[in-house]
Amino acid sequence: MDSTDKKKILISPVTRIEGHAKITLQLDDQGNVEDAFFHVNEFRGFEKFCEGRMFTEMPIITPRICGICPVSHSIASVKACEMIQGIQPTYTGDLLRRLIHLGQNISSHALSFFHLSSPDFLLGYDSDPVKRNIIGLAENHKEIAVSGIRLRKFGQEISERITGKKIHISGIAPGGMAYPLTEENRLALLAWIPEAKKTVKLGLDIIKKFMDENREMVESFAISPTLYLGLVGPNGEHEIYDGNLRFIDTDGTILEDQLNPAKYLDVIAERSVEWSYLKYPYYKPFGFDKGFYRVGPLARLNVASKMKTPEAQKEFENFKSINSGKPVHGTFYFHYTRLIEALGSVEEAEIILNDPEITSDKIQTLGRWNNPVGIGCSEAPRGTLFHHYITDDTGKLTKVNLLIATGQNNPSMNRSVLEVAKQYIKGTDIKEGMINRVESTIRCYDPCLSCSTHAIGKMPMVIEMKDRNGNLLKTFQRSY
Amino acid sequence: MAKKKIATVWLGGCSGCHMSLLDIDERILDVAALADIVKCPIVDGKDLPEVDITLVEGSVTSDEHFHEILHIRKQSKAVVALGDCAVMTNITGMRNYFNLKDVVDTAYVNAISNDKEGTIPNHPALLKLNEKVVPLQEVIDVDFVIPGCPPDADTIFYVLFEFLNDRIPNLSDVKKLKYG
What we know:
The complex is a heterodimer.
Chain A: E1 7-12, H1 15-19, E2 21-27, E3 33-40, H2 46-49, H3 58-61, H4 70-85, H5 91-123, H6 134-140, H7 142-163, E4 172-173, E5 176-177, H8 183-190, H9 193-213, H10 215-220, E6 227-232, E7 244-248, E8 254-259, H11 264-267, E9 268-271, E10 280-283, H12 287-290, E11 293-294, H13 297-303, H14 310-321, H15 333-353, E12 373-380, E13 383-391, E14 397-403, H16 405-424, H17 432-445, E15 462-466, E16 472-477
Parallel strand pairs in A: 6-11
Antiparallel strand pairs in A: 1-2, 1-15, 2-3, 4-5, 6-7, 7-8, 9-10, 12-13, 13-14, 15-16
Helix pairs in contact in A: 4-5, 5-7, 5-9, 5-15, 6-7, 7-9, 9-15, 14-15, 16-17
Chain B: E1 4-10, H1 16-22, H2 27-34, E2 35-37, E3 51-57, E4 60-62, H3 63-75, E5 76-82, H4 84-88, H5 100-108, E6 129-134, E7 144-146, H6 153-164
Parallel strand pairs in B: 1-2, 1-3, 3-5, 5-7
Antiparallel strand pairs in B: 4-6
């Protein structure tokens, strides 16, 4: 395909200033969208600069990959360290880590839903972009905005009450935890549970009402089938902290089950592409072209046989009925599944906070270097995350490989953008709401790369359409 | 008093500082009462209005960041370096010990999960990485610095609130003020 004779649209959101994502839409001669390129515009080089450092530094360094899911990095990292050391965490240490991880899942999902996405549902995709954010939401729906802010606060407070810090905490250590949970803090966290549950249910009401009223959009919004990957527990139950890998195909047939994450290289490969700093992972047995798979809340609920807690299970059954038990492919359902997970996370946090061992001081086992290789895995809010370390016999890292959750959704995000752009953008007459829909496709996946600054602001952007000689035909600019 | 304008920008960093900003929780509405959060500038000129304060997270790692930070300086009465990456490059600057080609090749050519058919990212829409990562003050004059990885939410709120009330914040009294 000769791209030089095609018209191109470049969507450069705030992300340009965030430095993190852009979209190029390529038009054919009739002005229809022909292809889309999702550019992830960020690279920091962790895999290189960690070389030569001690493996025990990794649980402190790697959370700095992401300010939204730092706990998942810590968890994957300490698991890799524990494999190198050949040790297991204590019961209480493990439970505390699980609790902190649930907290992060709650706060991250709250951010995605209430701060970033609910303004679209409550104010409208075509509403004034200046107001289409959490602050604009507070003007019209103050109670909902404040509830969402407080749900996120609850998740963050779990980390703070155990480790003294909300983001980039220290204390998650190989062998368990470095800090215990005090009785006073346990009670303070437990007191949050009813409010947190109520807010998640409020979110579920909002999304279900929106889905009912916009059935046609929901059912047609980036619906191409993919494979799915997620961790599951020993009985196939939904799991975000521990467990083994399960891959399913587009019909729900299980391709891999109870696969130890340490064998991830048997099933996953990735390819670097010219147009993005984010690589394109794929399911190895199916190859690059057919091996599209997705991770994250939608994937985890598609692969799981059941939830672990009663109220989440009830919603899960409702979700499963959407496609008669088969995988649900509609990208919009990421929102719904995210809230079902948030509900399960609040319920599980309550169970853990009531465990008599949670305030025990037996929080850490110790070990030295024993094995050269460590592979750790956790389910970040956005999907399955792998840390792979190779060390020399002094414990120094000689090779590091990180397979990040958002990366695995990259090929599908690219395709979803194309599908939605084809559906909503025709020719050069572009309305702001159309662009918002294209962006909202990406928001469904809640990728780390577009998160934080969108949280409180709008996304001004420029779309440029160019002819074959690179001359500007038309500029579309979202106004302030 | 006219409502002030604030912008926040994320350069080469992890977004943790912005998350810490969100950790001011309900107080974001207090900030919104005093100022319009004119979220973030498109670099090319007219779109970023003149603002009173810009909080900048992250280091300068690329050509795009370099132009952005110059533009932000021009448009902002006060530029605040938010967090360790902006102040002294922190983790983002750890790649400075290696040459850039090695860093890029490690991810895009030699990673153990890579297949053999990939290509190193190189596209007009992508930023061009600089050989070395630098903190903000190597490129522009910075008016105020908040250290921390990330800075504590209370500190961020205090600084914002003081600026919005036309006072210079005094960090010597702030708890939890530290690098890392």
